[in-house]
Amino acid sequence: MSSRVLGLRVAGTVFAIVCIAHIWRLLTHTAVIIGGTPIPSWPSVFAAIFSGALSLWIWKLASGPA
Q1: DSSP letter at 41?
Q2: How many domains does the chain contain in total?
Q3: End-to-end distance of the chain based on CA atoms, in angstroms?
Q4: Which DSSP letter does residue 40 get?
Q5: Alpha-carbon gap, residue 30 to 63, rounded angstroms
Q6: Fewer beta carbons within 10 Å, N or C terminal of the chain?
Q7: CB 2: neighbour CB atoms within 10 A?
Q8: DSSP letter string, 15-53
């Protein structure tokens, strides 16, 4: 396995973990407070979609030419 493929797989996995974390936050209604300011849950919807799409795209790139 080349270092390029390994790097893409690691990046894809990191984005998948981020996606799962945002979905988990939405399902459990976990409160996030930054600098004393509560952050609403709706940005996690966009973050989950974006990070999930990036993860799928990077894993597809790692699998080689279509």
Answers
A1: S
A2: 1
A3: 18
A4: P
A5: 35
A6: C
A7: 8
A8: HHHHHHHHHHHHHHT--EEETTEEEPSHHHHHHHHHHHH
Under 8 Å between Cβ of 19 and 55: yes
Question: What SS3 class is residue 34?
Answer: strand
d(CA 24, CA 54): 18
Q: What is the token pair recorded at 45?
A: 């919807």
- Residue pLDDT, tens place only, 40-61: 999 999 999 999 999 999 999 9
Tokens coding 2: 């080349």
Tell me which amino acid residue 50 is.
F
Range of the domain at 58: 3-62
Cα dihedral angle (29, 31, 32, 38), rounded to 10 degrees? 120
What is the value of pTM for the model shown? 0.87
